[in-house]
Amino acid sequence: MADDVIGLLDALNIRRAHICGFSMGGMIVQVIALRHPTHVLSLTSISSTTGNPDLPRGDPEVGKVMMAPAPPEREGYIKYYVKLRRLLYGSRFPYDETKNREIAGRFFDRSFYPPGIGRQSLAVMVNGNRKSKLSSIKVPTLIIHGADDPIIPVESGKDTQEAITGSKLIIIDGMGHSLPFEAWVQISDAIAENAAKTQT
Question: Is 25 a domain residue?
Fold first, then answer.
């Protein structure tokens, strides 16, 4: 998937880019920075991990819900998604069930593909532990993590910051494995500040 991103950048004639990824996307941007460092201006890894097997595991009850087969009919899927997102959301920010129902419906209509989450999980496991390799990353790097993340605990964000010399870690109190609207300004400002450190 990291190579796919580079293929797209090449097709668009974009030589270098500021890259940012959430959850598995954070793992993908780490791999991009490792495999294709000349394409990267800055890196932001959100709610992600180094793949270090010694890190604490997520909440097993939330994991069960996440890995349970999604109902194949639209309304059942929406209920499943709303329940899962509530478990992932965290404690500080208000959970908008109506908005999440709308998002779930759009997700279902765009692409309902149950095998996807299993394939993504396998890709994460196959990629393994990147921690020792991440020390080679030299671009400005920002790590953002929710203090209440039940799937990828905050220790994973700390581990990523420890692995990348000079990186900055922001822990958002009460944020789970989510990107609450109320935190968007804080997150986007931090990403812009990190990108501005780039030496061109």
Answer: yes
Q: Residue written as tokens 């996307």?
A: 25
Range of the domain at 45: 2-55+129-195
Contact at 8 Å (CB) between 22 and 46? yes
- Judging by beta carbons within 10 Å of its beta carbon (0-12, 13-18, 19+), is residue 162 exposed, middle or buried? middle
Please check whether residue 123 lies inside any domain of the structure: no
Q: What pLDDT, in 10s, does the model give residues 85-119?
A: 999 999 999 999 999 999 999 999 999 988 888 88
Phi and psi for 125 in degrees, rounded to 5?
-65, -40
* 29 shares its domain with 86: no
Q: 3-state class of 72 per DSSP?
A: coil
pLDDT digits (tens, 9 = 90+) for 144-192: 999 999 999 999 999 999 999 999 999 999 999 999 999 999 999 999 9
Q: How far apart are CA 30 and CA 22, in angstroms?
A: 11
pTM tops 0.85, yes or no: yes
Instruction: Give the count of domains, the chain.
Output: 2
